[in-house]
Please model this.
Amino acid sequence: MSLLSPFLVLPEAVMVLVLLAAAFYKNIEFPSALVWGKILKKLGPMRAHHVLEHNKKVEDEEAGNWHARWRARRQHFRVNWGYLSVETQNTSAFLRALRFEKQKIKSTKPGLKYAPLEVAVLALIEEATDLRWEQVRWQFILQFRSRLGLKVDKETFNVLLAHYKFFEEHMLALALAEGQWLHQMLMERLGLTEWRVIEGGQEEPA
Model:
């Protein structure tokens, strides 16, 4: 084999990497539009209290021996990764629905004449896109820390979780503006109908 062979395939490899990076960027910044009805089946329940309780339990198990700590951290990673995957899936689906709603806004319409619902759609697209990049960053960090056998950064995870739940509340409000039926179906798909409000404004599973 010629010594130049690796250098001859280098441009092709670089081109593949560039195309993959471009496709990845497009998938986050400009995903294909999808109607509300089609994204419902792509949504999963977000039972945040389960992962928060698990993270607290793992903290208590950290006092054990090395083997127990390693096993707890592996389980910790799997639980947090699974939760983050559903969170990312939901955010992506919501973003596709928002891009569909954006298509309804006439491109020739002056910004000052946008209806409140149209303004909300544009603002939520920006919020969802920022959240998607946060999720990408956290997925990389989670994988990196797992490979090194490090603990999950609980504080960072909680900040990302709070950001998602804040965005989710906005999407529920937008769905309610579209219709009660859509709001109720979203509540069911996201697992929020399993919760009920109790005295003092707190929530607990029904």
